[in-house]
Amino acid sequence: MDEAQRQKSPWRRNLAILWGCTFVAGIAFSEIMPFMSLYVGELGDFSKAQVSFYSGLVYAATFLVTAIVSPMWGALADKKGRKIMLIRAAFGMAVAMFCMGLVTNVWELIALRALQGLFSGYISNAQALIASQTPRSNAGKALGTLVTGSTSGMLMGPIIGGALAQFFSIRDTFFITAGLLLLTGIMSAFFVKEDFVPIPARPKAAKQKGLLRGLLSQFANPKLIIVLLFSTLFVQLGNASIAPIVSLYVKELMHGKGAFALVAGIIAALPGISNIIAAPRLGEYGDRHGSGKVLVAGYLFAVLVYIPQGFVPGVITLGILRLLVGISDGALFPTIQTLLTKNSPVTATSAIFSWNQSFQALGNMFGALLGGTLAGIFNYNVVFIATACLLLINFLMLWFTEPQLRTGKA
């Protein structure tokens, strides 16, 4: 789709609809997260170290499978369209989520989390659809706005999930989540419009190069694409390392008393508040002044707000710092996606977003395993320090390998 076709496409309409769909999907994905570790603890007589370790496995299972299958789903999206991938992801995950409410042991939960990963890809395909239709001059703002849809849902999800788990049961929350994903699939089927033109098949010689290598041959600057993909991995690794232990950390800070499931949900939701405010504005700033500048500032800010989280005296201080994390996420995730869009040919849009999801899934997997392992061996504060160090390493990688990012020319 050339620039003239993008101007005439229904990208604004689809952006509004997919904002709503990703909002509902965000609620579905996030409302189970604050109490997943608590759910693991209910499935057996585990020690603190065992709960941390199994929680890491539960989180990682989905993302391991997602990392493997995402490029294949992306290739299929280029042949069949992004809309059908949205429907496939929503309905498939609804089935997996419903079954999670019926498990009797932790291994069944791990297996179903893996099944959820098999059907993953809703948000990445929504991003690819919008990126393929939006005029390049509006890409940063459009993708930044779309991110706030899932972020808004993820903001509400932990609070809703924490309340449901506190006042009803954890199992009921899985059934409600399945219903929300079913609603997302229906909305995608009936309201999203896509005039899809299949991407021509690559020559046999290109296919023989391998999926990623063949894809990179289409880019003017493949090194930049690789750096951005690994940046996605590192940023998501940082976020995911916290996810398995946040409810356990809150429970410890509250000394095991009070409505800690609900408080954990609120703490988990706080980054979304600042993300909603920051992401579109930072995306628009990047469109005008250079996305690379936003990316660099986001990394430095993230390092500064992660370290103190391991030394907080109570949940209020933790909440303030988690609120600030949303600003760094609003700078990092949409900006990486915008840079991928602006530096990608039209023929590689779905493929590159699928590979980006693969790297994001790997970040989720390694982050969950890292967080659970470090918390089990040492303590919760070590997880926050390790996360800050990894983001600093990623920043230095960007600074020295792609100098055009710091000048805003990328």
Automatic annotation (TrEMBL):
Q: What Pfam families does the entry give?
A: MFS_1
Q: Which GO terms describe its molecular function?
A: transmembrane transporter activity
Question: Could you tell me the keywords of this UniProt record?
Answer: Cell membrane, Membrane, Transmembrane, Transmembrane helix, Transport
Query: Which regions span the lipid bilayer?
Result: 15-39, 51-73, 85-104, 143-168, 174-192, 224-246, 258-278, 299-325, 377-400
Compartments where located: Cell membrane
Topology of this chain in the membrane? Multi-pass membrane protein
> Does the record's keyword annotation contain Phosphoprotein?
no
**Occurrences of domain Major facilitator superfamily (MFS) profile (ranges):** 14-406
Question: Where does the source fall among the domains of life?
Answer: Bacteria
Gene Ontology cellular-component annotations: plasma membrane
PANTHER family of this UniProt entry?
MULTIDRUG RESISTANCE PROTEIN MDTG (PTHR43414)
Q: What is this protein called?
A: MFS transporter
